[in-house]
Design a protein that fits this description.
3 strands; about 40% helix; globular; disordered N terminus
Length: about 110
């Protein structure tokens, strides 16, 4: 089909756009993609960010949602805007949601 297009631009730090029959999907780079683009190992990134290597691994495998301070440290070490990294954007969105406590009912 002439309308079916799949394009990936150079570096993972750039957004990728896919168009499948008029459906446009824009994917943000992942932490792993950005780290790989900068030719950093998990240990090297962790050292530059001042966090534990296990933290990087757990975030990349989506086993944990990073705290805001960790997120900022890693983004700074990568020279990336946190809003443009998939795992970080999800953490930021989660932080914006009101915290629910057991037995708490939000006012109407």
């Amino acid at each position: 089909m002439a309308d079916d297009v799949a394009t990936t631009f150079g570096a993972a730090s750039e957004f990728r756009t896919r168009n499948y029959a008029s459906e446009v999907i824009i994917a943000m780079p992942t932490l792993r993609e950005l780290r790989a683009d900068r030719l950093l190992t998990i240990r090297e990134l962790a050292q530059q960010a001042g966090v534990a290597p296990s933290s990087i691994h757990l975030i990349e495998t989506r086993r944990v949602t990073p705290q805001m301070t960790t997120l900022r440290r890693i983004a700074s070490a990568l020279g990336a805007d946190p809003e443009t990294v998939e795992e970080f954007r999800q953490a930021i969105e989660a932080a914006k949601e009101p915290h629910r406590q057991r037995g708490y009912t939000a006012p109407p």
